[in-house]
Design a protein that fits this description.
Layout lengths: L1 H10 L12 H33 L3 H34 L6 H26 L7 H49 L6 H29 L7 H36 L2
Length: about 260
């Protein structure tokens, strides 16, 4: 029965899609992002106050304050984006369930986006007057959309890889339980439970594959966020189906234990 107990301990975890507890490096990069986020929020408040002051009194000093605080806000936003990218990279590199191919792709996209941020900083530094602020702001918004697209595609690929690992784990234990069921004389009910589990696992595998295909299409130009939503929907279906498989595997395990005594 020891092998069945081991199988059961894994089965009860099959529906989990969460990332493992944050390693020190991942936790540090997440904290850096949270701090950068707070700095950006404070810079935004300072910029808004400068605009209020300028509208009340359009002096050269207040005009310069608007420009300076706008530049500080944009740089704070770029700092936040860079910190977020580093956190997502560390998260992927620290998860043993993520294949090396996906980790490498994430690192490459992060490096490319960090380099783009360097270019955006040069655009911000070149601002000399209020009239230049909207143009640079719009450029940053466009760049942020591209950044979000890359992160969404990478996150989807990561989740699909984890989903695949859980599907294969469920399939492995279903096979082990079926082998054990062969040694039980009255096993019709057990086999029925395993057949139901296999059917649910097959559906989950199909939906994980569909999610993976959808996430691969999260690119610009196109409809990246629609594809991302489609991938998420397929993964949610796969999760539900793994829960169904889990229930049937637990049922088969219980019946084998009861009838093997």
């Amino acid at each position: 029965m020891k092998s069945f107990v081991s199988a059961f301990l894994v089965i009860v975890c099959l529906a989990s899609w969460s990332v493992p507890a944050l390693a020190a490096g991942v936790a540090d990069t997440r904290q850096e992002w949270l701090q950068a986020q707070q700095t950006r929020i404070a810079a935004d408040a300072t910029y808004k106050q400068a605009q209020i002051d300028y509208r009340a009194s359009k002096t050269p000093e207040n005009d310069k304050e608007v420009v300076d605080t706008a530049k500080a806000l944009m740089n704070a936003a770029l700092d936040e984006a860079a910190a977020w990218l580093r956190w997502k990279d560390a998260e992927a590199q620290g998860d043993p369930r993520v294949p090396a191919e996906i980790r490498n792709a994430i690192s490459a996209d992060v490096a490319a986006n960090l380099q783009k941020i360097v270019g955006y900083r040069a655009d911000v530094a070149a601002i000399q007057a209020q009239i230049q602020i909207p143009g640079v702001f719009l450029k940053l918004v466009g760049g942020y959309t591209g950044l979000l697209t890359d992160v969404a595609r990478n996150s989807g690929a990561l989740w699909a890889a984890i989903g695949t690992s859980w599907v294969e784990t469920a399939s492995t234990y279903a096979t082990k339980l079926r082998t054990a069921a062969a040694d039980v004389s009255d096993n019709a009910e057990i086999l029925a439970a395993l057949d139901a589990a296999d059917a649910a696992i097959a559906k989950a595998r199909t939906n994980v594959a569909a999610a993976k295909d959808a996430y691969a299409l999260v690119r610009l130009p196109g409809t990246p966020f629609i594809k991302f939503a489609q991938g998420n929907a397929s993964l949610r279906l796969a999760q539900t189906q793994l829960l169904e498989a889990q229930a049937q595997l637990v049922r088969a395990f219980t019946l084998i234990g009861a009838r093997s005594r």
